[in-house]
Structure formats: structure tokens, C-alpha cells
Give the backbone structure.
Amino acid sequence: MTVDSLHGPTNLLESGRNQIDFNSLNPDELKSTEMSGFEKVAELDEIPSLGRKSIIINDEIPALLFRVDEAYYCVEDVCSHDGQPLTNGPFDGKEITCPRHGARFDVTSGRACAFPATEPIRVFPVEIRSDGIYVADNES
Ligand code: FES
């Protein structure tokens, strides 16, 4: 069994909700997102494509915000194998590699792609708004 087969397609991106085009929401959806705790974490052109930014969500959760072309992804900055920060791990445009033991995670879903990690890392919903990039803690 591969690590890939351990996790089903039950992530936010595959369900189409990881990234929200804020400007396309109807008033009811807009009200819903404003009440759901999104906080601004970056300016629109702050992060170059294939770049990243370390952020803190809700003043307590370390996270990494990645940009790939016009898409943004946000994952918790903690390896699920042994708690190492992923902060400075190599990033190939889809997967971040843990600098400690080499586990890889898909930043679009949080899925563990390589041992020794077998559990996913958290992903956070991202909104691209006209004035910046917003992220929410989806478990608060
Ligand atoms: S702590 Fe990340 S692979 Fe071990």
C-alpha cells in the first residue's frame, strides 16, 4: 500500500472550497465568509509564484502560505511525522519536503506523499480578495 492510497479525495481543494474567488460570491455567501473568521495574511503581489510566506493564524497556528501562479494554498507549518517545522523545506510547486526526514506533503490537500509521514497536515481555506489574501482557521 502506498501513502497515496491512505487518503481519499476528501479535501477542501477537491471539493472546490480551498480557494474562493471572493468577488464571485453572492451576498449570502459573502456574509457567510465574513462571519467565518478569515484574516488578511498577505498583499496580492507580496509572494512571487512558487514562493511562500510564514504566517500565524489566529495568533497561534504557524502556517505557510504558498503561491503557484495565481493560486494560493495554506498548510500548517508542522510536519505530521515528528512535529518539525516545514518552513524552509524544498517546494516544487506542489509538494513541500520536510527538512528533517524527507516526508513530502501535497500543499493543495495536505496529503502525505512520502514516508516517513503517513498522516496529512492541515490545510486552511484561502480567499483571494481585491485587497489581499485571506486565510481562515477552519476548525475554530
Ligand atoms: S519530522 Fe518531518 S519527516 Fe520526520
Notes: The pocket of FE2/S2 (inorganic) cluster is lined by residues 79, 81-82, 84, 98, 100-103, 116-117 (CB under 6 Å). Residues 27-34 form the longest helix (8 residues).
